[in-house]
Amino acid sequence: MAKSQQTFNKLEKEKKRLKKREDKIKKKNARKAEAAENPQGIQFAYVDYNGNLVDTPPNPEDKIKVEADNIVLGVPKKEEGEAEDPVREGKVSFFDSSKGFGFIIDTENNEKYFCHVSGLIDTIVENDKVSFELEKGAKGLNAVRVKKI
């Protein structure tokens, strides 16, 4: 007598597959019945002018017309009238004269800028008030033409 080709494990998997298929059909029929009861159809969510989700559509009269030419992508270019003063003021937070570098904190925006001894006009020490200009360096902005105030 030959052995059955179907094992217990195969039977269980087949039962699970059939049950899953039946559940799927039941859910589908339930959704159809609910749609028949509620004739409104698909519910929509709209976004109002404040960014909140609402169930009422927006008023088309409140629509604002935007010209494509007025949309600025990126940083707007500086106009000639907006020239900044290149000389800034700050305070020396750290300076090591033996190594020849230090850091200056800008009084306007509290940014820290690297300062090298080659960019000094006067000798400086910690906590000195100084005026300086910014120059782009290898790792960011550097303070150059540093003078004591």
Automatic annotation (TrEMBL):
<dbReference type="InterPro" id="IPR002059">
    <property type="entry name" value="CSP_DNA-bd"/>
</dbReference>
<dbReference type="Pfam" id="PF00313">
    <property type="entry name" value="CSD"/>
</dbReference>
<dbReference type="InterPro" id="IPR011129">
    <property type="entry name" value="CSD"/>
</dbReference>
<feature type="compositionally biased region" description="Basic and acidic residues">
    <location>
        <begin position="10"/>
        <end position="35"/>
    </location>
</feature>
<dbReference type="GO" id="GO:0003677">
    <property type="term" value="F:DNA binding"/>
</dbReference>
<keyword id="KW-0238">DNA-binding</keyword>
<dbReference type="GO" id="GO:0005829">
    <property type="term" value="C:cytosol"/>
</dbReference>
<feature type="domain" description="CSD">
    <location>
        <begin position="87"/>
        <end position="148"/>
    </location>
</feature>
<protein>
    <submittedName>
        <fullName>DNA-binding protein</fullName>
    </submittedName>
</protein>
<feature type="region of interest" description="Disordered">
    <location>
        <begin position="1"/>
        <end position="37"/>
    </location>
</feature>
<dbReference type="InterPro" id="IPR012340">
    <property type="entry name" value="NA-bd_OB-fold"/>
</dbReference>
